[in-house]
Amino acid sequence: xxxxxAAQPPERLRLLPSRLLTRTAAQVQRLxxxxxxxxxxxxxxxxxxxxxxxxxxxxxxxxxxxxxxSDVVAALDDLTVRGLVRRALDPADRRRNTVVLTxxxxxxLHELDARxxxxxxxxxxxxxxxxxxVLADLLARVNRHHAEAE
Amino acid sequence: xxxxxAAQPPERLRLLPSRLLTRTAAQVQRLxxxxxxxxxxxxxxxxxxxxxxxxxxxxxxxxxxxxxxSDVVAALDDLTVRGLVRRALDPADRRRNTVVLTxxxxxxLHELDARxxxxxxxxxxxxxxxxxxVLADLLARVNRHHAEAE
DNA sequence: GCCAACTGTTGGCGTCGCCAACGAATTCGT
DNA sequence: ACGAATTCGTTGGCGACGCCAACAGTTGGC
Lengths: 150, 150
Hints:
The structure is a homodimer. By secondary structure, chain A is mostly helical. Chain A has one domain (33-148): Winged helix-like DNA-binding domain superfamily/Winged helix DNA-binding domain (Arc Repressor Mutant, subunit A). Helix content of chain A is 66%, strand content 8%. Chain A has helices at residues 11-14, 17-36, 41-53, 58-65, 69-81, 103-123, 129-148; strands spanning 56-57, 85-89, 97-101. In chain A, strands 1-3-2 form a 3-stranded antiparallel beta sheet. Chain A is elongated, with a radius of gyration of 20 Å. Mean pLDDT of chain A is 91; it is low at 1-5. Chain B binds a DNA duplex through residues 2, 26, 29-30, 33, 40-42, 57-59, 67-73, 93-97.
């Protein structure tokens, strides 16, 4: 018999806040990905931004979602192929594409909204509603601090 | 003048707990990566595991760190080249490699310990010590819940 | 002795975030 | 008004991270 290798993570890692944060994020992210099914987080983010901003340039959408221009292009390509989004040259500024959600796009977005909300429930099930609020608040403050530093 | 595009994220995303979690994790992860400099999280994790477990097989190290066997191989290759770790065939079980930290490895690990601790300070600076404890606790519970579900 | 399981290794895949370069178009500075 | 700087979309690429499949060598159970 070989010595049971003690699957426990090393002490330094087990208690490391940054590791706890990134690993938990990965777990939750996995749930989200499953929930989104055929879509990725980029797709959902862009559709949400398009819905709330109305007709907007790709740059505006990317900035709103905090994603790189090149990634916006790729994700919008996907959404265009699926007919969820339309790109049109902005006549007022011919560098820009005006992006709008189609009817199918709005329907898909609502569907995803439901799936995403359902995932949030499952993701934080060990926490009470109060605790979820506390967690969100703490994360928001850390997030904001690092975001402000550009 | 073009309409200021309002860089604010869409409402649905701004308040989405899973997004808050993953984005904050990414910010902190970036700090960690900077702190580790020439090393990656895999390297630090494996060295920590090797230090705490003593001579161990790659499988044991990988299991302890929660990483895939193939990723263990790659990371140990790096560490071996840098002379921080030694691989030796286990005479008792010739399938296994016994992995041990070298003197240089121990020194490097201590150096990294310091850098990592310093990063933890900076990462969560907007939180009081109490709040950091609360955050760690909440994350640990969520993490444990999803980990137990295998 | 045989079959199942484990070990290390190679090679590959997908997501995510990021960066560089480019041409076309627009805005700014003077 | 005109050249310089900037913006926009696009393409192509990179690194980190997590994961999976296959394979040969080895070991264990039965």
